[in-house]
Design a protein that fits this description.
53 residues, mainly alpha, 2 helices, 0% strand, rod-shaped
Length: 53
């Protein structure tokens, strides 16, 4: 998940440099969403992953 966020961030940077601002904005939005989902899943796995039954 974090790898996909980094990939979309790189795509956004390259698209912004080349002048494709609409594509850059879309890729940046996708990267933000993926990063937030990664953070939420990471915190949930930290909290619930250490439980012993």
């Amino acid at each position: 998940m974090l790898g996909w966020a980094v990939l979309f961030f790189i795509v956004a940077i390259v698209a912004g440099i080349l002048g494709f601002f609409t594509l850059a904005a879309a890729a940046a939005s996708i990267a933000k969403v993926l990063f937030v989902v990664f953070l939420i899943l990471f915190v949930v796995s930290l909290v619930f992953g250490r439980r012993r039954v």
